[in-house]
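User: Quick sanity check before I run a bigger batch. Here is a single chain. Can you write out its predicted 3D structure?
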Amino acid sequence: MVYYTIYKITNKMNGKIYIGSHKTTNLNDGYMGSGKYLKRAIEKHGIDNFVKEVLFVFDTPEQMYAKEAEIVTEDFLTEENTYNLKVGGFGGWDYVNEKGINNQGKDKDLISDKISKRLKGRKVSLSQVQSLKQRHKDGNLRHSYFGNRDNDAEFRKNAWSDEAKEKRKVTRDKIEFQKGRNNSQYGTCWIYHYKHGPKKINKSLLPDYLLNDWIVGRVDKDKKKAEKQIINDRKKRKFEDKQSKLAKETRRLYLDLRYTSVRAFVRDGHFSGSNQRLLNLWRKHILNFEL
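Assistant: Done. Predicted structure follows.
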């Protein structure tokens, strides 16, 4: 005899639950669900910390999936104490294919929009985030760059091989990737305001912004040029001050040691440069310089 059941699995450690449907010939077959987050939780906490309870038993799959849809709703998915990821009532692949309710031949954009609306606002719990981070750290995710698994290096090698890059190029050319209207920046431009900073807008709005002291570009080029000039002037002054200090110190040392030859002064290691450079330094920074 075939049973169509609705069951509940409870995590005894944190109280989180999973509601699922299952077709079986044995009500005690030990089946513990197929949910992705549920499986991860069982792997983390151990099967002994989970309790399964059969809530309903039906004679037909239609009755089973109708009850699942009644329990596992969009509101149910938004609760933090559930492992379920999608609303109930869709059935397994045998039921989906039998009823012809798969996605083949249907409006994919409409389907994507429905899925997006269903998942909008769903929050990932802190425990799920921490678990994912730990799996990255331990290298337990396939092709994880955070881990040190052997297949990571092989994956990168294959992904960036000449053959793979050529395939990507052909595909992008075929779908006109980032070209014309397919470009993510199509019809937009950057503008800048001295008070509000940079902003990206639709080009059709540009005339209105230009009337309110906005300029085209991500930065104010005149302002940036002025700031660059200020920085260069500051560096130049700093360099000149350093040269003036060096000139005065070496000139004072030259006189204190009673040198009469610049050549001898430089030769004795009191200045790291040529005789002519030292003389030019003194002439430039010493007022009324006389040798």
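The radius of gyration is 37 Å.

User: Great, the batch can go ahead then.
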